[in-house]
Amino acid sequence: DLPEIDVTDEKSVKNCFLRVAPDVVIHAAAFTDVDGAETEEEKAFAVNFLGTENVAKEAKACGAKMVYISTDYG
Question: H-helix or E-strand containing 74?
Answer without folding.
Answer: none
